[in-house]
Amino acid sequence: MGLERLESEMVLRTAETLRGRIAARFPDRGLVKVAEQLIGLIRGSSGVGERLRRRLVWTRAVSRTLIVAVLVLTLVAIVWGLATAFGDETLTGVQWLPLMESTVNDLVFAAVAIFFLYTIPERLLRSRALRLLHRLRSLAHIIDMHQLAKDPERLRTGFTATSASGELTLDADELIHYLEYCSELLSLVGKTAALCAEDSQDNVVLDTVSTVERLTVDLSRKIWQKIQVVGELREDQSSSSV
Questions:
Q1: What transmembrane ranges does the database entry give (predicted)?
Q2: Residues 94, 233: Cα–Cα separation, whole Å
């Protein structure tokens, strides 16, 4: 395995291992299903690379062939029109204007057609990658929702619950493990997004990948702040019990 590429197989293996760890400790929690969804997206992203590489090969071949055809037809039309005009001795200077206008229009239309055909492969890759990135961004928010109600302040000895306070069924150790799993899932979401950029130089795709990566880092930072609070509470409780 080379060190210059992010390999989807390694990301998938890490996600499957994480799913097993979550299932072993929290088998009845929805976080297991979130990990399974992420595994499915990673498998889909690996398919993006393989399938799109094959699709792009023949798509580029077809588009380049059509570009050559457009160029040939345009040149033939222009040469034929000019040859006909030069062969007609009755044409005056003013009568050359429609011919020049038609030639310019043909060149403009040919340029538009060539640009459209040239960008077809990249637009196919962009469309598939953006759909996957949109799902990854949604999954990142779902992971954030799973940790959102896990408030470490409820572990404080003097915490007073209200009628609107949800029940926290995790102790300090379980809460730390749960939050760490959420952080690891977010990290893998970012890695999966990075897989979309491995075979793309499209600025829109790269910007979207960066957005998803920044989102996962920001969400993970909030989780680690909670983990730090739980650690401090556990140390305080341990020191007070001595």
A1: 61-87, 107-125
A2: 91
Distance CA 20, CA 22 (A): 5
Return the structure tokens found at 55.
């699709």
CB atoms inside a 10 Å sphere around CB 235: 10
Give pLDDT tens digits along the chain (242 positions). 455 677 788 899 999 999 999 999 999 899 999 999 999 988 877 655 556 666 667 777 787 888 888 888 888 877 776 666 555 555 555 555 566 677 777 778 878 877 777 777 777 777 778 888 999 999 999 999 999 888 777 777 666 666 666 666 778 888 899 999 999 999 999 999 988 777 677 788 889 999 999 999 999 999 999 999 888 777 766 555 54
Q: Which residue has the tokens 């979309």?
A: 196
CB-CB contact of 84 with 230 (8 Å): no
* Residue 205 neighbours by CB distance under 10 Å: 23
The domain limits of the chain are: 8-157+166-235
Q: Where are the alpha helices (DSSP H) in the chain?
A: 8-25, 31-87, 96-148, 172-196, 203-241
Give the separation between CA 121 and CA 62, rounded to whole angstroms: 10
Residue entry with tokens 């939050």: 179
